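Case study 2.
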Amino acid sequence: MAAESSLLTPDWSLLVTVGVFLLVAYLLNVLVFKPVLAVLDERARRTGGIRQMLGGYDQRLAEYEAALRAGRVAAAKLVEERRAAALQRRSEIIESAKQAASAEVAAATQALTAQVAAVKETLARDAEHLAASIAGTILGRQIGTPR
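Prediction:
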């Protein structure tokens, strides 16, 4: 039991261990932790402004993209309106051309009908004169032409 009690009773080695521990903790704090924390704080301070700028950038980018989308929608609407107007104008031009063509066909048909009537009248007169001439030649006498 005497050996057991010497293990549990504190002696000077415990104080030396605690002292070495405190010295190492102090040295680590001074030589490692404080410089590392100072660097991290400085980095956070310097990047804080950048993060704010990035936040502003993200907001401006979102606004720009929204404006771009709105512009695309407006452009598509304008293109569609102009396309519809062009199709309407095309329909009007085609209809106008059809009407003009119909009028020309009607005028040409009327002119042809008049020419056909004139040619028929001329052919009828010429046929009568030719028939009278042929009959006079065959009969050997002059035959009067009907009026």
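Residues 71 and 123 are 75 Å apart (CA to CA).
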